[in-house]
Design brief:
Layout: H1 2-15, E1 17-19, E2 29-34, E3 43-49, E4 51-63, E5 70-71, E6 75-83, E7 89-94, E8 100-107, E9 113-118, E10 127-128, E11 135-141, E12 148-149, E13 159-160, E14 166-176, H2 177-181, E15 195-203, H3 207-213, E16 215-216, E17 223-232, E18 239-248, E19 258-259, E20 269-270, E21 272-273, H4 275-278, E22 286-287, E23 295-309, E24 319-326, E25 335-339, E26 344-348, E27 354-356, E28 369-370, E29 375-382, E30 386-392, E31 399-405, E32 408-410, E33 412-414, E34 420-421, E35 423-426, E36 431-434, E37 438-439, E38 447-454, H5 467-494
Parallel strand pairs: 4-21, 4-23, 7-19, 8-15, 23-38
Antiparallel strand pairs: 1-2, 2-3, 3-18, 4-14, 5-12, 6-11, 6-15, 7-8, 9-14, 10-11, 13-22, 15-17, 16-23, 17-18, 18-20, 23-29, 24-27, 24-28, 24-30, 25-26, 25-29, 30-36, 30-37, 31-32, 31-35, 31-38, 33-34, 33-36
Length: 497
Amino acid sequence: MKKNFIKTALSSITAFMTVSTLTASAFNCIAVDSSVRDDLPAHKLQTSSETAEIVVMKDILAFNPENKRIPEPNMVYSYAITSANVTDATITTIDSNNNPVPLTVYPGVIQAVTAITDSGNAEAQMSTSADGLTKNGTITFKCDPNNLKYTNKETDTPYVCSEDYKFTKQMGVTINASKIYDPDNNPATQNNGVGIYRYKITETTAEDTYVQSGVTEGTAGDVVYLDVYVKNKDEGNGLLIYGYVMLKGVEITDSTSITYSETVDEGVKIDGFTTTYEGDTNGDGSVIPADFKGDKYLTYNADIKKQVSGDFADRQHEFPFSISVSNSTIKNSANFSINDGTKHAVTALDANGAWSSESGANLGDINFNLKHGEMISLIGLPAGTKVKVKETNDTDVAYAVSATCDGNAKQVVNSDETKSGNSISIEKDDTAEMVEAYSVALKDNSNKIIITNTLRDISITGLIFDIAPFIFITAAGILLFIIFMKNKKKDDTDNMI
């Protein structure tokens, strides 16, 4: 009797459903509209089927102090799918005549989860716990040099959460209705019936994974619920999936009953762990910062600039530079980009959080030789990154080399450590290197590292001299000449008759 009622109710709903032509996902699902309401609680499959691949979205919002475009972080999220512990839950919707239609919510049949795919890692496969009660999957973010995103400034309001400002990946969960109907594939066992089957999807990503990827975890809930709607096959003896909905775990529990009506907050319906649904939207792709709950990828920039000082210094000469970068917490090869003013390249820290321009990896034809006024920019460095710079003097003239970081003097040392200080004289083929790496910090603009080469004034003969002794000698000569002339005049006067 109960099954007949539910079957009739479901038939009544589907009779009044009009399939809208909204966005088709990668798994070919579209939204559902009612002829009277637009708040029916499901994405309806184009064609009811024994299997459905359901998309769980995840994204990371990008941040940079200068709104520079940055590459995607390397981050692997982990998820566990279990059967929700449902007790007496119902979903009540409205038919076209405004009549309530209650549907029973059952615990999701975990055997019906037959596959989990990862859009960021084609080789990732679903795993099953030893007791068979949990299915595990991942969502993988990887650097793509051609996939640079625009960024928010953390001090700006509101945040922009459109597709251009966030990195997005998805996990596909395949549900097989035949396994819902008969989990053990045994006709002798009791078959499950029509209704709604609720699954619990929990993010299980370790805290260290966030730290080692440079991603800041948001405050959004770690749980979403997946309600899968099934109906009888036309010929009976089996079930078909005709729709599904995902719900916010912060507002829905395993046994929450929901009544969909004009007053229902549609914000409980989501498409996964995404920024679009984790904050209050302003209707223009932006989110009010106070309510933003998504994950962030905070990045920083550093500019290495060359200055040459002195009237006789060669401002056209390109001095060779090498740059090293380190980050003690990053273990997932964080990506950043380099710009020499004309060319751009994307590179990455290694597994130990280190990088050097001397390795030449993924640098293309970036020019690390700088003349006066030129600059190399490191863009999108993850939090906690340190930068150290070394310059080689390949000229025949000795230069005094100094370094400042954001206007503060930093000690430099030559290759054999015989000279160190805020300014040291570097002969031909020697180097000057920053003693301590500079830690980049969140600012309204780039962190500035300036390396200055100074050449003192020289004479035409090439001898460096100090003008003070010359003035003293000249003055003394003039004084002696005046005394001599006075004595001569006196002698001439005395000799007159």
